[in-house]
Design the sequence.
């Protein structure tokens, strides 16, 4: 089992709708969770991080964490064509220094006009 | 703005060559990382450095070495390049302390080993 799993997609969502991206992780003791966005041909950039169970909102983005079920989600409201990108989930498992995070393979999101 | 630069965007090398990939950051970050990114496998950590001359192996260090002689510069070395090292290589840096989870990535080097 991979330590961080994501559906590779592509996930196609109409403009204006809510895009929902999911990520599961294997190490129950993981404490820190991150979402990076990577446009085609570009490098990843951090868009959200979450430490506590529940929701964290930042503009159109909401990260949801459920440690009991070992998943973390990213919701994008009012999806725009500029949201089309690959979204990488990352986790910092216990036993690793806080800086060393493990990335999933990413979900490709396509927003159709 | 944090800036992480990598010496080359594209490189073509032959099997057996020694390859140097250079990364420079201008934000005085303590932590620096080298990843490779392959389709379906995501980003995998090769090596990590938390200070000058300090390094830790990542998840896939075999066939690679690193050098950090100055705080701003982190080099990845392929001692004898092989075709299975054809990949996109990404360098990143992050501060220590409270925001150490925020990694800033360079533009990447796409390496082709023939």
Sequence:
């Amino acid at each position: 089992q991979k330590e961080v799993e994501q559906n590779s997609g592509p996930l196609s969502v109409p403009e204006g709708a809510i895009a929902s991206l999911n990520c599961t992780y294997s190490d129950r003791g993981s404490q820190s969770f991150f979402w990076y966005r990577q446009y085609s041909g570009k490098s990843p950039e951090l868009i959200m991080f979450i430490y506590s169970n529940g929701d964290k909102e930042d503009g159109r983005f909401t990260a949801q964490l459920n440690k009991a079920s070992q998943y973390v989600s990213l919701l994008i409201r009012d999806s725009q064509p500029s949201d089309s990108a690959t979204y990488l989930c990352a986790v910092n498992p216990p036993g690793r220094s806080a800086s060393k995070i493990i990335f999933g393979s990413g979900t490709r999101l396509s927003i159709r006009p | 703005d944090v800036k992480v630069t990598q010496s080359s965007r594209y490189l073509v090398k032959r099997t057996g060559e020694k390859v140097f990939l250079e990364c420079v950051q201008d934000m005085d970050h303590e932590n620096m990382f080298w990843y490779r990114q392959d389709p379906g496998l995501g980003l995998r950590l090769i090596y990590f450095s938390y200070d000058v001359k300090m390094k830790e192996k990542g998840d896939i260090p075999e066939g690679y070495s690193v050098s950090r002689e100055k705080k701003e510069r982190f080099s990845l070395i392929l001692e004898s390049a092989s075709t299975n090292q054809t990949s996109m290589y990404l360098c990143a840096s992050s501060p220590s302390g409270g925001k150490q989870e925020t990694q800033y990535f360079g533009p990447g080097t796409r390496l082709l080993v023939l």
